[in-house]
Design brief:
The protein is an alpha/beta fold and 309 residues long. It has 8 helices and 10 strands. The chain starts with a helix and ends in a 7-residue tail after the last helix.
Length: 309
């Protein structure tokens, strides 16, 4: 065997060795990502909906009384998010403990996790309806006080639930909502009150509307969309201004059918973030204001409404 051949064989073994190391690291990395996601995406409940296993994370306050009808808040994560993170950034559990309601964080599908809010969107709607059924079997849920809210893609899902499950959802809330379901297809059987928060510097769901990088369809101009959403509730006249606080201003559409108000808060310079919640990295979502606590304000809004009143 020539010296050249020996060198090539040794070189080949070295290359093979390094390739195996790289593949091993990649496999380990993939395994680490899978384990990390499994740990982060912790859930404590599951149901079968439309033939598919679906999961959720639920928080029941220690003060829960099985003899007392209890409100239910459904809080929906955004695109590429998960239930435990929605729980963390929103702080709904603390309010559930304080005011005595149950909060559930359902999980979307796919990887990354998402909600189908346009096109074939009914599977997720059916899942939420099935989830309400399941929780009503397990707990004494007040069917007149079931509320939905969410972040980004989850905010769009909450709006969709207001359109399609208005017989079960008392009111909806949205933070940086991505509204991809057409307004002209939103035909609720009853007007559903809505409250929303949007930042003017949101690069993921732009305040002025455009095709954003995270979505395949154009997103609406938010102020125009909120005005059109108020028309669905037959709100009369111009909106009234709410008291401003720091970077936050708001308007309220009132004189609506069945008292189903629509409230819209604007965060000047705000990003794709939950106001008053735990800030996410600014380089991803932008600025998170602490001038208003969206969770507290949403609950105060929700608590005014129940189906049948």
């Amino acid at each position: 065997m020539s010296i050249t051949t020996k060198i090539l064989k040794v070189f080949g073994k070295v290359i093979t060795f390094f390739i195996l190391i790289i593949l091993g690291l990649l496999a380990l990395g993939a395994l680490t990502v899978a384990i990390l996601f499994s740990w982060l995406n912790k859930t404590n409940g599951k149901i079968v909906s439309s033939g598919q296993e679906r999961t959720y994370l639920i928080h029941v306050p220690l003060t829960y009384n099985p003899a007392k009808p209890t409100p239910l808040v459904i809080s929906i994560h955004g695109f590429a998010e998960w239930p435990a993170h929605q729980m963390q950034i929103s702080g709904w559990n603390e309010l559930a403990d304080k005011y005595g309601f149950i909060v559930v964080y359902p999980s979307g599908t796919g990887f990354p996790r998402r909600w189908q809010t346009s096109g074939d969107s009914m599977l997720d709607v059916i899942f939420i309806s099935d989830l309400i059924d399941e929780l009503e079997r397990q707990y004494n849920i007040d069917p007149a006080r079931v509320y939905a809210n969410g972040l980004s893609n989850g905010g769009g899902m909450s709006y969709l639930l207001g359109c399609t499950l208005s017989n079960r959802i008392s009111a909806v809330g949205s933070v940086s909502g991505a509204y991809t379901y057409p307004l002209d297809e939103c035909r609720p059987s009853r007007p559903v009150p809505m409250i929303a928060f949007h930042g003017t510097s949101d690069s993921i769901v732009p305040y002025q509307g455009e095709t954003a990088r995270a979505f395949e369809v154009p997103l609406p101009n938010i102020p125009d969309w909120m005005a059109a959403r108020a028309e669905i509730n037959s709100c009369a006249g111009s909106p009234t201004e709410l008291p401003a606080k720091g970077e936050v201003s708001g308007i309220k559409y009132s004189s609506c059918a069945h008292g189903a108000d629509v409230v819209f808060y604007t965060i000047q310079g705000g990003g794709h973030a939950w106001p008053g919640g735990e800030p996410m990295p600014a380089w991803i979502v932008g600025y998170t204001t602490q001038d208003i606590n969206a969770t507290q304000v949403v609950w105060e809004f929700f608590s005014q409404f129940s189906i049948g009143e």
